[in-house]
Design goal:
Distance between the termini: 70 Å
Shape: elongated
Helix content: 55-70%
Number of domains: 1
Largest sheet: 3 strands, antiparallel
Structural class: alpha+beta
Length: 104
Amino acid sequence: MTTISGTKKTVKISIMKQQYTVSCEEEAVENLMSAANYLDRHMQTIAESGRVLGIDRCAIMAGLNISNELLELQRKLEVHESTISRLRSLNEQLDKFVGDLKST
């Protein structure tokens, strides 16, 4: 259930069967709900493994796992950005080469 208050919305989310009320910008509600569901799934998986006891420890382990995923994606993004930059540079060199050929 959500209620509108200005440009903010109050959203009720459920994580590990506990309800939390969170406020966010109206346009961020969908992302917030997705993030809450993602966290809940991670915490449920950790809890079901039986290796971690307590909601606090599940939250910490889920946070660590999600942080690790984020850092890995950031590393991959940096590699892709570097590759794109190199490809742009090569494309510019090819354009110059082709332009030089056309002018001769």
